[in-house]
Fold these 3 entries.
Entry 1:
Amino acid sequence: MAGRRERVGMAERVRRIAGGAGTEQVPPEPEALLLLVARGDEGAFERLYDLVSGPVFGLVRRIVRDPAQSEEVTQEVLLELWRTAARYSPDRGSAMTWVMTLAHRRAVDRVRSAQSATDREDRAHRREATRPFDEVAEQVSTRLEHEQVRRCLSSLTDLQRESVELAYYRGLTYREVAELLDTPLGTIKTRLRDGLIRLRDCLGVAR
Amino acid sequence: MTADIHALTGAYALDAIPDVERAAFERHLAECDSCAQEVRELQATAARLGSAAAVPPPPELKARVLARVSQVRQLPPVVLPRQGSRSWPLRATGFAAAVLLVVSVSLGVLLVRSNSDLDSERTQNSALTGLLSASDARIGSGTAAGGTNATIVVSRSRGQVMVMADHVPPAPAGKVYQGWLMGEGEPRSLGLLNPDAAGRMSMLDSRDLSGARQFGISVEAAGGSTTPSSDIMMSMALPG
């Protein structure tokens, strides 16, 4: 129920943004925007940017942490959306899922490659231009989403929640999670799966 | 699919699988509809975790991204490849690239391994020529996150695989790089790979390639290992 209301709210927000440039016939979904972007429509890309840049940047920053690198990765992800829009296929999931999956992957690539490169040079130090963020007030819809996810996360067992958060928000592999939580590998694999399944049901993710 | 592998759907949806296991799991996904469906749902769930972390980026990022967009070429949609004459020019291009690579490799060090004695330069060259002229030679290349490029040439009929990589960082102190073939069964070691001073490394190996679908380079303790560690530098699909 809460999930349904949230979905409607999101759709309205999308409609407002997508319809903002005076092209009334444009269907108000990120999927439709991607379709236009795939045809080279830069205006549609700008509307897609407004829609996804907050979620992408927030997630990337959560994983990468370094502000300058977070911006770099966010830029990479958004340009990748532009470049590969024609490769998006709706039967593999919603556009938002596609975008966030790509963003997570890129952020994780960044932190893992940084790990393996520490002997060579410390990139984090090289890019020490730590620019403080303007912490803009979160949008209302973001806060609702945040609230719902927080509530659902708190319905997990401690081990499920810790495993999921370490894997997703810190970009650790399940082996690293097992090491950190001093728990057998098989248990962590299982907790990641049943934790996510419980989250899926709590959030009302479409089956 | 075994219960154990099925349990990886969660780790996969969270990008919490080392690359080598990821490749193996993706092959399973291609064959297991119920797993693919579960992964889609769990990825959609993970995306919600991501959206909940939303923070507006600095305003100047938008101008930067929009400015870059006008300079970036978009990929065309995927069109299913047709059989026949179209495949030839693509392969020819592949071979041209391979020949250039062979030239550049000859400036570096090519390590040739085989059950027979392949020490002499002439034997190396003939092994290379043989591999490249094989009717089923396939070439593939990829770039790892750290900027390492690798190119692989495979001939399944000859049972030969050649790997060339450049921009390889020196292995961490006390560690070595090790190549692996993965696919059906346990990963099989291709032996240790040592980058030269210019960051290039290469090898040519003759062996049974049946069931091999993936090539990977891992970071191992000095002396190498019998199974790949979770520290994977890069992995890519074996062409062909």
Entry 2:
Amino acid sequence: MKIEEILKKLDAPLGVSGNEEPVRAAVKELFAPCCNRVTEDSLGNVFGWYGCGVKNAPLVMLEAHQDELGLMVSGVTDEGSLLFCTVGGFDPKTLPGTEVTVHCGDGKYFGVIGAKPPHLVKDAGKALAIENMSVDIGFKKEQTEKIVRIGDIITLNTGYIRLAGSAVAGRCIDDRGGLAAVVRTMELIQKYRLSCDVVAVATVQEELGLRGARTAAAQLVPDAAIAVDVCHGVSPGVSDNAFPLGKGPVVSVGPNLHPKLTRQLLDRAKEEDIEVQIDVDSGDTGTDAWEIQVAGTGVPTALLSIPLRYMHANYEVGDIRDMENTARLMAAWLLGFKGGDQLCY
Amino acid sequence: MLLKELCELFGPSGWEDEVRNFILSRIKADEIIVDSMGNIIAHKIGGGKKVMVAAHMDEVGFIVSGFTDEGFVKFKTVGGILTTVLVSKKVLLGEKRVPGVISAKAVHLQKRDEREKLIPMSELYIDIGAKDKDEAKSLLNLGDYGIFAGEYTEFGDGLVKSKALDDRVGCATVLGLMEQEYRNDMYYVFTVQEEVGLRGAIIAANRIRPDYALVIEGTTCSDVYGTKPHETVTNLGGGAVMTAMDRAAVSDRRYFEMIKNVAERENIPLQIKRTSMGGTDAGSIQRSGGGVKTAVLAVPCRYIHSPVSVMSKNDFDSVGRLSAAVLNELERSDI
């Protein structure tokens, strides 16, 4: 499947942290044809197992998170609109003027996050805080209270857009772009003879603090792991710690990442003529790699990131070439990985 | 559905072509003029007073003002759009309807004081995915227009969400009125460039020199969370809105009273706009020629001038019925 087809299948279903069921179903469907079996754990992490057929082969974990940001109902106003809090780190500035869906027990309701008319805006330079916003679902208080319960999840109705060239915009390219690269890798290795077993993992609750990755890695304690996530893309006013789109995945270096594994990835990229960029992370990478590294007795971990503009806004913009190249790089490295002392200091 | 079709058309002030063509394909009159700015003036000849019924075709939008070396599109707003609703919204640009996203620095990269501030217009731009300036320029030209993307959606208790209720509700209402016959000398006008200063109405009124004008609009409604009761302006579901006075026009007092009486007699819900802010084509029409008696009937719209303005179908219906009753009344009585 073309990487964009995979991305579209993953971008469409919802998966707010802790409520990942819809996207989980899509992940299982995509894992199934390229894995020997697909399993799920108690938190909802999904595992796609691929065996190379060699006895006692080392196990490699390829992972990306399946969850996305969302909102949650926290109250009903006298006007009948919904107060809300965020699930994960939203930028409140992107919310006014946004269409949403409120997921209630008995169905889905359309709503909008409005904005005050210009003549009522007192401090024009100040951004509206979340606590001053509400979701208008078009009902009066009495009716709203019958329909909606505190704790119901609200999602943005942001659609997928194919932009110019190979750029794409979507609600949660973070981290469906990474997940697409993992699925694509599993497809690519079908034609290889590997010397390692591979488990593709779609983790839950990353946006709430890397929680699914912790329990997933604890169960697996693999011989090596590659986490795939997003990093900031270059855009006007954003140049530090940011990477241009379309110039390949970003390979992170720093204490969170295993130096030998990272070196092998960089070498393979060179041999395979895959363009990569390097990000220097002096400590916490803020990704699942941070948890995986310290699972059990420790896991040699690498981090590949897909440059993404406007992370955690309504629309995030990435480049499908970077996703494809991330998959090509992981597949190329897997082909050469045999375990043993390859990752020993 | 007529209103849905109208709302989804591309018609920022200065580039109302798609709306104009849609309306032209649907109207019949004794004489139809498209003037130098693009107003449609449809004349149905009658014996009595000259009555001008107007709605504006244009909507708030964007205009492409530049390209960065990296291929991002600089833009200006056309009409009054708060920067509050711009960030991270989908837009469509130019004749090819190139999709783009209004963008701004990721929240992680904003300093503490930046997080609390709105991003100034000068730092906003549209991301169309172009890899550089050349690719952007191959897709768009300077001066290309844009609009918010978004579908007409019905929701809640008889409500509608759309990007351009202001003033496609007026266009739909006037198209409805044109289906009826009135004995007065009727001029049905679909104006351009209302959102940039009530411009089209100036030359349309100069040409027609009407005795009376009825302007059909979408207007501010802020009966929502966080607004004090005295600042709500109008109520959604409260019926048609009539303006006594705004920054652009003062309604003729006897005309105003006549409309109130008609609404009462016909049992059509009517509310009076509770502010003197804002302005409509009535301002231009009232001051045209030797002066024109004007009135404004409007559909209350929450979140007006945003991609998600909201109206009540009942209010829209009230405006349609009341405006028809007012045109009938203008045949019978002199104000």
Entry 3:
Amino acid sequence: MNRSMRPLLATVAIFLVAYAAAVFQFPGLLSTRVLGNFLTDNAFLGITAVGMTFVIISGGIDLSVGAVIGFTGVLVAVLISSFGLHPLVAFAIAFVVAALFGAAMGLAIHYLEVPAFIVTLAGMFLARGGASVITQDSVPINNEFYTMISSLYFRLPGGGRLSFVGLLMIAVFVFGAILAHRTRFGSYVYALGGNATSASLMGVPVARTTVQIYMLSSVLACLAGIVFSLYTSAGYPLAAVGVELDAIGAVVIGGTLLTGGYGFVFGTFVGVMLLGLVQTYIIFDGTLSSWWTKIVIGILLFLFIVLQRLVFAASARGDRSSETA
Amino acid sequence: MTRISFGRILNTQTIALVSVLLLNWILFPGFFKIEWQDGRLFGSLIDVLNRGAPVAILAIGMTAVIATKGVDLSVGAVMAMSGAVAATLVVAGYSGPVAVGGALAVGLACGLWNGILVAVLDIQPIIATLVLMVAGRGIAQLITEGSIVTFSDPTLIFIGTGSFLGMPMPVVIAFALMVLVTLAVRKTAIGLFIEAVGINRSAATLAGIRSRLLLISVYSVSGLCAAIAGIIVAGDIRGADANNAGLWLELDAILAAVIGGTSLLGGRFSIPMSVIGALIIQAMNTGILVSGYPPEFNLVVKAGIITVILMIQSPLAGQVLGFFGRKKSGASR
């Protein structure tokens, strides 16, 4: 068995055990209704986390995604409600803005040699501030096309609904997995995260790849913003505050190393589902207060980090012993 | 060390601070007016110092952490926790000093936890402190049981809103901490050890520095600073708000350190410069408020100014401006 798959397998195993334990306590959790809502409710987080996975594998970080979600929601809402544009046109404009925004951050990180943490922090201020400059209020979206998409779903056996946004999230994960593991861009991202100097010496176009990574992250955050506005039928400048932390948490729980160079898009999917499970469990329980969500996510983060360290230490020792043998 | 920092008084940070203050003065003519009332100083400038004190205190601890090539994301959550502990203790009938001691103990414990994760378990600082950043605010809410705990304890209120020799208490505390920590790192070898660990931890360890102990102490100092800031913020509003106390202040503190010229890659740091960085951030916030601009421009302006400062500090700008820089340094000699 491939050693590098171990953290991923550990994450999957922990998710299955946690899910089984939750189902044992509340059998209702097993229904397709809950599973369908799982996908719908976490769609925007999942889509954001795919972009974050690429950023983190490349050794960077993107703190601006939550603000980009808020900005996109407001931009799309204003373009549709105040300017009367067709939603698809509004989406196209939002994507172009997000792509330019991500490209600017990538350029700043590469050419100004400022750490990604600080550049994307400034990006976060800019996007969040930009959203508040456009409007301070929640802008409702009353559009037939919007209601049509948001009410689109497949009926699952057992009364569950697989919504359009849930499917969209799965599609983004499949796209992300193919991009990471089957394309040249994907291998560049891994190479960059492993060792930027070696990557550049091996002929990886570092500047172009960095810009593309942050463009990808911003565009996916923009897509998540559109999904979020479909979900709430409104745009609000303070929407999705702190989602960047949830996304980073999901990526780390999914087994991706924050040092870069190692990780799986599928692991992030399991991470998002695990975060969703914690929230759903707390809602099902009903007696636990909302702050337990934060505490449990903190504990989960801690457990996964320690687990990863142990697994990596063990496999490193294993490698060494196999070399000497 | 003192000779170098004296020669650097005319640097990017002080010029930035002075220009932001002058800009505020142009937008709001009464900006530099300071009055003596009820035995203390009042005025916009004093307000900048007072409001900037919590971030400045966080920045002192953060700078030391960043200098070891780390980062402490948990300081905002630690502020909320220490405020919550202080408030709950006085409400439960304990005296003010006991509450302050309890809050400081919480900060120290959080710092030790972070330090052990980073130094003993070898976990990346950003992720090790993320654990407490996420869980800490939940724990703070657990302590206050989700409500805002209000109190009327004179000691805590004095720390938040009192004055000493005419200066607001937070400013006095921040200044004293800055002097204390600066002396500790620059008059002893500790500063050198911190820089050595930040540049290359294994090399520093091989050279005989007890890097594990050093890292744990540095994170503990950061936790203590966060606890002090938490007590100040709680004393200021006479209550502990677990949801909002110190929210996103870790980002402001990191920003203050970076604006102050501390390298996020470790090894280069200056505590007074970070405090100036915190004051630049606060001067921008106050400036936008007093000049009557809508506060929603606050973040955009902040992003703009950060970008400008980072561009000036970047190596690329150094190359482009190298010509002018050489000329200037030649003239000064």
